[in-house]
């Protein structure tokens, strides 16, 4: 109850479903309310919280620290507000041949440029991400793209002649490669997808590169 009052007082409306769900779970038996299982209640609370965080203005979502730089595993990352997409929290790496993009609560589109891509790491939580690979050359051994998608959507646009291997694990989600391989050449660049999708969707679209 105190958390509910505090959220109202500070106008942190995006997190109000959390104390409401807790109160409902505690009082559903004493007040003879319709029964909702714990895990179903948790799932609904997460979805509603993410939806409110996306839709509400920033001033009604609580404070988030936005602009900073830090070192992690020997690489520098930037977290920033992405222009008009003011609700998105984005982190990006500096290595064009091993790009890293992480986005939460919003939408982001990125056009990658690389002359020898080896790996890529894409993380999308409660939002939508579009990544274009038409200006990318893969390493001679191919490249591996790790995708983590939770309550969101990730769309990858790759050249038609690339061979795409989908090894993504899905849980209440979907991973799909659209279109057919343009060429059966055994030397075609190979892109291997790994990672996890939970309550989300990953789609690979083939375009002319």
How would you sum up this structure in a few lines?
Helices cover 18% and strands 50% of the residues.
Give structural notes.
By secondary structure, the chain is an alpha/beta fold. The protein folds into 2 domains: 2-60, no CATH class; 68-207, no CATH class. Helix content is 18%, strand content 50%. The chain contains 3 helices and 11 strands; from the N terminus they run αααβββββββββββ. Strands 1, 2, 3, 4, 5, 6, 7, 8, 9, 10 and 11 form an 11-stranded mixed beta sheet that branches. Helix 2 runs antiparallel to helix 3 (38-55). The model is unreliable at 1-11 and 63-81 (pLDDT under 50).
Major sheet details: 11 strands, mixed
Mean pLDDT: 78
Shape: elongated
State the distance separating the first and last CA atoms. Answer: 56 Å
Given helix and strand content, the structural type is alpha/beta
> Which stretches are poorly predicted, pLDDT < 50 over at least 5 residues?
1-11, 63-81
Report the helical percentage. 10-25%
What's the β-strand tally?
Answer: 11
Number of domains: 2
Order of helices and strands: HHHEEEEEEEEEEE
- Number of helical regions: 3
Helix/strand layout:
Blueprint: H1 2-9, H2 17-27, H3 38-55, E1 68-72, E2 75-82, E3 85-93, E4 100-117, E5 119-138, E6 143-150, E7 153-159, E8 163-171, E9 174-177, E10 190-198, E11 201-207
Parallel strand pairs: 4-5, 5-6, 5-7, 6-10, 7-11, 8-10, 9-11
Antiparallel strand pairs: 1-2, 2-3, 3-4
């Amino acid at each position: 109850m105190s958390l509910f009052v505090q959220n109202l007082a500070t106008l942190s409306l995006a997190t109000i479903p959390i104390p409401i769900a807790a109160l409902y779970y505690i009082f559903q038996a004493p007040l003879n309310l319709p029964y909702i299982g714990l895990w179903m209640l948790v799932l609904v609370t997460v979805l509603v919280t993410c939806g409110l965080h996306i839709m509400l203005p920033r001033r009604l979502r609580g404070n988030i620290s936005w602009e900073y730089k830090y070192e992690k595993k020997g690489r520098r990352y930037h977290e920033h507000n992405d222009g008009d997409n003011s609700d998105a929290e984005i982190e990006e790496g500096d290595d064009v041949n091993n790009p890293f993009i992480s986005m939460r609560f919003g939408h982001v589109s990125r056009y990658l440029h690389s002359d020898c891509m080896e790996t890529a790491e894409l993380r999308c939580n409660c939002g939508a991400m579009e990544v274009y690979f038409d200006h990318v050359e893969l390493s001679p051994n191919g490249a591996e793209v790790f995708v983590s998608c939770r309550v969101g959507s990730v769309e990858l646009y790759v050249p038609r002649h690339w061979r795409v291997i989908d090894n993504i694990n899905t849980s209440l989600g979907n991973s799909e490669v659209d279109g057919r391989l343009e060429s059966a050449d055994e030397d075609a660049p190979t892109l291997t997808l790994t990672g996890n999708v939970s309550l989300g969707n990953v789609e690979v679209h083939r375009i002319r590169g």
